[in-house]
Amino acid sequence: MARNVIKDQQQRELRRNQILTAAASVFTKRGVAVAKISDIATEAGLSYGHVYNFFESKEEILTVLVQSSQERYTELLKEARVGSGTVIDKLRWLISQYMHSSRTGTMYWVVLQAQATEVLSPEEKEAIHRNVHLNRDLLADILRDGQAEGTIAEGNPVELATLLLTLFHNTAMWEYRGFGEPSDLVIDIMLRLVVNNPSK
Amino acid sequence: MARNVIKDQQQRELRRNQILTAAASVFTKRGVAVAKISDIATEAGLSYGHVYNFFESKEEILTVLVQSSQERYTELLKEARVGSGTVIDKLRWLISQYMHSSRTGTMYWVVLQAQATEVLSPEEKEAIHRNVHLNRDLLADILRDGQAEGTIAEGNPVELATLLLTLFHNTAMWEYRGFGEPSDLVIDIMLRLVVNNPSK
Amino acid sequence: MARNVIKDQQQRELRRNQILTAAASVFTKRGVAVAKISDIATEAGLSYGHVYNFFESKEEILTVLVQSSQERYTELLKEARVGSGTVIDKLRWLISQYMHSSRTGTMYWVVLQAQATEVLSPEEKEAIHRNVHLNRDLLADILRDGQAEGTIAEGNPVELATLLLTLFHNTAMWEYRGFGEPSDLVIDIMLRLVVNNPSK
Amino acid sequence: MARNVIKDQQQRELRRNQILTAAASVFTKRGVAVAKISDIATEAGLSYGHVYNFFESKEEILTVLVQSSQERYTELLKEARVGSGTVIDKLRWLISQYMHSSRTGTMYWVVLQAQATEVLSPEEKEAIHRNVHLNRDLLADILRDGQAEGTIAEGNPVELATLLLTLFHNTAMWEYRGFGEPSDLVIDIMLRLVVNNPSK
DNA sequence: CATGAATGAGGCTTCATTCAT
DNA sequence: TATGAATGAAGCCTCATTCAT
What domains, with CATH codes, occur in chain B? Predict the structure, then answer.
């Protein structure tokens, strides 16, 4: 009997996403280098051998995961920039989105390991590096907008961006470090880093 | 004869420290889970078998390294608190010390991996967790001092401490992420997070 | 209705032969142990799962292939023996047939692997061995005929047969070894091995 | 205590040769693709993990083995050419050496598998091919010498060489095919292929 | 009949750790 | 003390085979 090709495709896509989701979870909880393919398979609810019908290797899973996470973040940054309100409002929205989006938030830890560790080949690390810089520059652009409109403090926008992202990216890791989940209130404190203080 | 014993002891201590230094370097560059004992031995300039005359296991090396790094940081925090000047001055000194001390600075990356990854046993991770909280509380104490003297902004001192350390700890990792070495100027920007702004 | 059953049977036989032909090709090109069921299925133009509707296992495909090749060779030998002309003529015809029949020729390489390798069980190997000896003996019979008629040199006919078959069987492998396709002229050279040289 | 460096070197060389010898044996008996590293290790009398302290991979073992076997054969051919007596004598010596040298003789089967099978990469196969042709040409040179001295039959020397080597190489495999060990008498029969028959 | 999703046995390879020298 | 040979647990990956559709 012939198969239902369309349903097969959907099922396949579903499986693939299950694996990616499971991988994100396992990479986050156990660490990228420590995570086993069989851990991922178990978490995804399939046999370890089947994972290889979707991905070439553990490395590829990591690469795909990091790439898509970085792309999603890029979209978020672009969306933030064209949003409404002052740049401060935009940043508040951006950070809130970042911290609450389960994917982006927890994925920072995975990206960090992929970038600062030798689990991937130099070429793959280089690609990640490029995207990290791209995204930093997008954040810097937003800050530059804010300096133009007077809501963001003076200073090298790239440096300010680096500081700001260092802060809110890592805040998303608080729960993994036993610091508890950060409240939304911390966003305003973070923004003190870059907000223009007219009183000085 | 007695002389030799003492010299032997010193020699042994020297070797041990060479290994620890090498381990810190290799753990930082390659990643804790990826690092091989033979990498460490090579970097330390001895044979891999000899490493086991100083440490029980790779796990022990990591544990000792993390522990001593955390203790050094504890000392730094205590020293900062009893320093001279306002709390702002003390924080400036603290962060500067943290970022420039090659040991403390790069060790954050190792501690982070040890804490948020399953390379160590739950018990060992628990010990690290305790020290992380201890140190955060010490930083919070300093901030509380500052709130009392009026130089630090209002707000939950533990939360402020968590934000501040999240920022300056991770700034020490900039070079591993391709963000370049942070200048001393960033310290004042970081402090905007917690400094009291009397103009409001 | 009855028609359909017959047609189905033919269709099934066709499929089966496609698989065997594909298997012969893949076994020859890639090696028996290296060949994958999916390689064979692809070459035969069907899905890998479907192969199991015709054969129990990879082992069975190989066994059937070898068996039928050996049987065909047996037929060839019998046909040669009852042919017309001198034994020299018969051998010339036999070798020519062997080398040009795509099946017999390339199949020698498969049989050799099956016989001298542990891809098959000892029992299956034993069966192949028996057929190999059977066929050698048939060739020896032909040589004996030739000795009787005076066209074949003296000597142990089994030994002569073994030498002769060693030569022409392996000549069929020249193209796989980069020696190019042998010309028909080589047959007469081969026959020097066994031809009676009245001049001595 | 310092090690005995010289003895270590010798021991290491010994081990390496044990592995190669074991590999030749296992590859011959079980088949190159079927042979397991652990089979080789067991036969060599060491643990499977230790094999990797001498060779990168199973592929490398095979390559080294084939290469050295081909080189040994090249030497044999060169030695034969400069030997004493007629070319017929030289060939008799050559074939006898080939068939009795346990290494060269049984290694043909391994070389054949490596050359006609996809266990090695195309590059490695290409290198083997080159050596096979080189050695065939050396044999052709000897035959050409014989044609000059009148002891070898007319005809394309490369073709004659190919036929002759096809015969005596594969004769070395008789025992693996259940044909029993060939007697020395067969050598003279083999030589009929190429010997000049003055009577014609 | 046909397809390819799914499983898991089994081989390859790495590397922490032990131990003879 | 110092070296590196030796071991084998454990993870990666392949692919024959099964089975739902």
Answer: 1-55 (1.10.10.60), 63-200 (1.10.357.10)
